[in-house]
Amino acid sequence: MKRTINLLIIGLNSLSIVAQEQWTMNRCISYAIEHANSVRKQRIEIRQSRYDMTMAGLDFLPTISAQLSGQYSWGRNIDPETNTYNTITTFNNYYSIGAEMRLFDGGRTFNAFRQARLARLNSETALQKAADDKAVVVMTKFIEAVYHQKSIGLALRKLADSKALLHKTRSLFELGEKSRPDVVQIESQVAEDDYNLLHQQNAAQSALLALKSEMNFPVEDSLELDTSVVSCPISTDDAGHIYEMFGSESPDVKLAVFKAENARYTYLIQRGLLLPSLSLSGGISTNYYRNLSQKTKIGEVFGRQFHNNIGEYIYLQLSIPIFVPSRWRTVHRAKSDWLEAQLVLEDTKQKLNADIVQAVSDRDGCVREIVKMEKKVESDSLAYRLSVRKYEEGMLSAFDLHTAAQTLLESRIKLLQIQLTLEMKIRLVNYYKGNRLWTLK
């Protein structure tokens, strides 16, 4: 007795573990987003965009550069002191350090910084867009996998009914109430149902592999899906109101806005090339010269020359582009890209509005279809039971009974499709309403 109780406890614990290992749609989506390479790439882009903005800010500061050169000469050359030819060996050493600051460059530096800052903000939107796209794909693959797995249950049920009917037909055949063709017809139906079961099992395996692939889940590991269909409460929504609330928050719209603004900054930067530029520069330089053919103290000569030859300079440079046709073409191209990006933004907003209207319409349509299809399944189920009774009484052929069974199976499958489609449409409408069912870690 004690051993039986222990086995029962172990069995219950095993069932609990199996139940805990079931993967819901939300869990699959969260796992996919966490392990998706597209999301990881966007996280790298976020770090890069922050670095780019920092570098763009440093462009406002002066640039500093230093130069050091040495020249070793031998053979016949000109003496710089006497301006006569001689044959000596000399060494020249030059040092300089300078700084340059752009006082005005047509706004190119300022607009480049604004463009980099915009790109940093957009990188967050691109990350959310990558997560949303991955979530939608995983949601679709999850629905397909659940559909095929639940179709296996329907196929098993159909096969069990056919086998029970075959057993009864054989019994009636032995009693002389059914003919041999009736038995053969039911055997053919059992074989067909057995094939359909195998086909559904293969389809379920393929759908599960596709889901694992989208999740970046190890293919060799098991993945037990939660196949329960939950009825979610549905509220009456106005597609126009949803668009007004979600239009400015949509990642697609935000990305289109970014592309339009980015094109505008590119146009301003290119236009700045047509304006004058003003820069201020200054620096210090010195040099050292030595005639290696003469013997002198290197340290004393170097120190004295290095100090005596020091010179400072400062200059202001104004550059005015007068005739540069290539820049005109670049500016015109940048302006055209900006105008095209604005048109793309308008198309994106219109498409989002149409998608929201379609999603709400599909969801409401699925609700109405489920009501009708549930009634049809109930009617087809009753018709099948009556057909079985008529078949047993010899009032219906095996072919007509097979037709009734297939009609019931198709109705059940159609109801399952609509139920799963409704769940996906509800999530999609909730997404447009701003209620994301997945989060980024």
From TrEMBL:
Looking at the keywords, is Plastid present?
no
Q: Name one GO molecular function term.
A: porin activity
Superkingdom is Bacteria
Q: Which GO terms describe its cellular component?
A: cell outer membrane; efflux pump complex
What keywords were assigned to this record? Cell outer membrane, Membrane, Transmembrane, Transmembrane beta strand, Transport
Cell compartments where the protein resides: Cell outer membrane
From the UniProt annotation, give the residues forming the signal peptide. none
Q: What is its main location?
A: membrane
Q: Which PANTHER family match?
A: OUTER MEMBRANE PROTEIN TOLC (PTHR30026)
> What family name appears in the similarity comment?
Belongs to the outer membrane factor (OMF) (TC 1.B.17) family.
Name of the protein: Outer membrane efflux protein
What phylogenetic lineage does the species belong to? Bacteria, Pseudomonadati, Bacteroidota, Bacteroidia, Bacteroidales
